Amino acid sequence: xxxxxxxxxxxxxxxxxxxxxxxxxxxxxxxxxxxxxxxxxxxxxxxxxxxxxxxxxxxxxxxxxxxxxxxxxxxxxxxxxxxxxxxxxxxxxxxxxxxxxxxxxxxxxxxxxxxx
Length: 116
Known about the structure:
By secondary structure, the protein is mainly alpha-helical. 78% of the residues lie in helices and 0% in strands. The chain has helices at residues 8-13, 18-44, 48-64, 68-83, 87-111. The longest helix is centred in the N-terminal third of the chain and has 27 residues, at 18-44.
């Protein structure tokens, strides 16, 4: 049973198309970790445009995979980039998202026998 993700939305929007579901989870496992690194770099360097671009790119995937808390936190990152806020305030939020993504990638990789 999935603890760190939920594929209900993916199945719903795909009309239970298992190939589509596999495409989505493959994209998550292969692309989101790199996007998270780029997001971290944008936050570290206070490159607000870069951080916003990656947060915005990651957001729909978190929503689609039922990662509710990570989804809500990525919205906070987007807000932070718009306000050009202090780096300290967003570090913990990023760390929480990164941990949730890492757990979901590991769980999906195991559940679907994928290489991450």
